[in-house]
C-alpha cells in the first residue's frame, strides 16, 4: 500500500526510511556536538546515551529545554531528510514548526509515562502531519507506539460523548502497547488524529528523538499561527 494511504487512512501512520541520510547524520552529529558530556563519549551516540541515562532528572530536564532545538536549522534538516514523502503529502509550499522538538527519554519505571494523546489536543490543525525519528537504533521499548486511526477516532467520539479528554479508557491503553523497534534511518510519520504515547522502559540507554510538524501552506492554520510555524519551500 502507498505510504500516503497508510498515513492518511489506515492505520494513520507509517514507518518510513529517511531519504537523505547525509542530512540526517549531520543532524545527529550536531546533537552530539552540543551535548554537555565529556568529549570521549561523543564519538558514538550509544556511549552518549549511556551517559544521559545516568543523569539526574533535573539535568535531563535542563538539557531537554536547551535541546528544544540544538541546531537553528533543525526543522529544515528534518524536513529535508524526507523531502519526497513530504512533498507527496503536502506539496512544495509548507508551513513547518518553527522549532523542531528534541525529546530525551530516560529508562526506569518512574520516567517516561507519556499519556496516550493525539496531537490535535495541542491545537495544531487537522491538516498537520508529525514526523518523528530517533537519532539511533531503537533496540528496547523506548520508542513510541501509535494506535490505528479507526480505534483512535472511535475512542475520541466516545470521550466526546462522555465529556472526557484522555479519560481512564485512554490511560489503560498505555499498558497494552509495545513501541516498534526502529533502526537509525527509520522514522514514523502520522496524522494528528492518531493516539500515541510512550511506556516506561528498562534499558541502559536513554532515548533521543526529534520531531517536527508540517502542513501544506494552502490549508487553514486554525489555532497555531506564526509563532509556531514558518513558511518553507521544498526545492
Ligand atoms: Fe505527541
Topology at a glance:
Blueprint: H1 3-8, E1 13-17, H2 21-34, H3 45-53, H4 57-66, H5 74-80, H6 83-90, E2 93-97, E3 101-105, E4 129-134, E5 145-146, H7 149-162, H8 168-173, E6 186-190, E7 196-197, E8 207-216, E9 229-233
Antiparallel strand pairs: 1-6, 2-8, 2-9, 3-8, 4-6, 4-8, 5-7
The protein binds fe (ii) ion.
Residues 117, 119, 196 line the site of fe (ii) ion (FE2).
Q: Could you explain the architecture of this structure?
A:
The chain has 235 residues and is of the alpha+beta class. The chain has one domain (10-233): q2cbj1_9rhob like domain (Jelly Rolls, Sandwich). 31% of the residues lie in helices and 19% in strands. It is built from eight helices and nine strands. The longest helix is centred in the N-terminal third of the chain and has 14 residues, at 21-34. Bound molecules: fe (ii) ion.
In short:
With 235 residues, the chain is of the alpha+beta class. It is built from eight helices and nine strands.
Integer-rounded radius of gyration = 17 Å
Kindly, what is the distance between the CA atoms of the first and last residues, rounded to a whole number of angstroms? 26 Å
Helix content: 25-40%
Please write the CATH class name: Mainly Beta
Taken together, the total number of domains comes to 1
User: What is the H/E string?
Assistant: HEHHHHHEEEEHHEEEE
Give the CATH topology: Jelly Rolls
The CATH superfamily is q2cbj1_9rhob like domain
CATH architectural grouping: Sandwich
Structural class of the helices, strands and pairings?
alpha+beta
Uncertain parts: none
* Shape descriptor: globular
Mean pLDDT: 91
For the secondary structure, the number of strands is 9
Q: Could you say which small molecules are bound to this protein?
A: fe (ii) ion
User: What does the main sheet amount to?
Assistant: 7 strands, antiparallel
Count of DSSP-assigned helices? 8
Please state roughly what percent of the residues sit in beta strands, choosing from under 5%, 5-15%, 15-25%, 25-35%, 35-45% or over 45%: 15-25%
Amino acid at each position: 500500500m502507498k505510504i500516503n494511504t497508510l498515513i492518511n487512512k489506515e492505520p494513520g501512520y507509517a514507518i518510513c526510511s529517511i531519504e537523505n541520510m547525509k542530512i540526517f547524520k549531520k543532524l545527529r552529529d550536531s546533537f552530539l556536538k552540543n551535548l554537555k558530556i565529556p568529549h570521549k563519549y561523543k564519538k558514538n551516540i550509544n556511549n552518549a546515551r549511556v551517559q544521559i541515562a545516568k543523569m539526574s532528572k533535573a539535568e535531563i530536564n535542563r538539557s531537554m529545554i536547551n535541546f528544544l532545538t540544538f541546531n537553528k536549522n533543525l526543522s529544515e534538516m528534518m524536513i529535508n531528510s524526507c523531502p519526497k514523502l513530504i512533498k507527496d503529502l503536502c506539496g512544495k509550499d509548507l508551513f513547518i514548526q518553527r522549532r523542531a522538538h528534541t525529546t530525551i527519554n530516560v529508562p526506569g519505571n518512574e520516567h517516561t509515562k507519556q499519556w496516550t494523546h493525539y496531537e490535535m489536543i495541542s491545537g495544531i490543525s487537522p491538516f498537520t502531519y508529525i514526523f518523528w525519528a530517533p537519532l539511533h537504533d531503537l533496540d528496547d521499548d523506548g520508542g513510541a507506539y501509535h494506535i490505528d486511526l479507526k480505534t483512535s477516532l472511535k475512542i475520541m467520539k466516545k470521550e466526546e460523548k462522555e465529556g472526557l479528554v484522555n479519560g481512564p479508557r485512554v490511560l489503560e491503553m498505555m499498558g497494552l502497547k509495545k513501541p516498534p523497534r526502529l533502526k537509525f534511518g527509520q522514522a514514523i510519520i502520522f496524522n494528528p488524529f492518531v493516539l500515541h504515547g510512550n511506556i516506561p522502559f528498562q534499558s541502559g540507554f536513554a532515548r533521543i528523538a526529534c520531531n517536527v510538524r508540517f502542513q501544506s501552506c494552502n490549508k487553514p492554520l486554525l489555532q497555531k499561527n506564526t509563532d509556531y510555524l514558518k513558511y518553507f519551500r521544498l526545492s
